[in-house]
Amino acid sequence: MKYxxxxxxxxxxxxxxxxxxxxxxxxxxxxxxxxxxxSNHINPFSKISEQEFLDEISILKRDVESISDTKxxxxxxxxxxxxxxxxxxxxxxxxxxxxTFPIELYDxxxxxxxxxxxxxxxxxxxxQFTHIGKYNIEELKKTLSKVVQFVENENSLQxxxxxxxxxxxxxxxxxxxxxxxxxxxxxxxGQEKIEIELQSTSSDMELLRYQVYKPxxxxxxxxxxxxxxxxxxxxxxxxxxxxxxxxxxEQMDKxxxxxxxxxxxxxxxxxxxxxxxxxxxxxxxxxxLAYYLNLADSIDWLNGVxxxxxxxxxxxxxxxxTQFKQLLNAKIVGEPTGSNPNGVQDMGTFELPHxxxxxxxxxRVFRLQGKPNEPLIPDVKVKYSWESYIAGEDNILEWVxxxxxxxxxxxxxxxGFHRTSR
Length: 422
Description:
- This protein is an alpha+beta fold.
- It is built from twelve helices and 17 strands.
């Protein structure tokens, strides 16, 4: 009877552990990583040869017994980066227990600024970041650029580095810090050099930030959801649509109908579509929005449509911004986008069987502009201003609002001219 119980216990635990040791589990996962990408990616070997890819895989499998789990994941991230598109990635950031330093940074044309910090270090807010430990920002960027995921051009590389530089476990495995728990960060505030020790945390710590910009508009009650809504710009005949996140098709259908009805009922003339900070989704959902907007006859379709983009406009949001330029005659305003309208797109995913690590890949090829491997370039380039940011202003949107005022003033002047002429 005792032996029967032992065998039953073995039978229970066999499925959970696969009767494999850690090294074999990781070896199987690495094979699944390779096979999943080869089977599903539309063209995985356009920027790296299959032999080079296999060589990288073989080296990693050889070393799994002697390196940490995090190190294995980091090496997979390096291999994924060599595929060379913005959707093929190891979803390192999906780990809810991931340790991060309580700081947020923004690359302001090569000057790295602190835009979020723990309350206890509030004197650092707005300071220039220069080092972690002994490594300066250029050294940090050089190392991180080989690992950060979801990179399609220099703009998204810049954004991803500022995101990944917070991950203490990643910095540790890359040899950039000596401890996952604590590290010294160096800043300049004016001429003063400030060093502080930051401790990593697995919780989502609330950070102190500058006051969030509030557009000068009247948000329409019940107009959409948190990241998809509209409102009238005060003292104008322009409507502002915040398209920061993709809803379901059904939600967009309802939103599009309500927006069209509001535009028609209020004889709206100018339309501002804000896709900044939108990381993507199903671009056909965005096309459905364009369908409804195209039915609005009161809009000034010659000069009155604007689409706002920035470095955080990515994937489907870049595709839709390009389509809004083509389908709605929208003037593109802001910064070049973080992804390219031409190239492999449309993300699919699979999980590695033992670690559960999510891997994504590109399924389709889209060609929406003449030049490959380039971001969507705005018709009017307006870079974020640090001075505006710290003042709680949005200089990109302010440019559009000022242009709307000029357009309305010109329209009134033309009306007066025609009345006088008669």
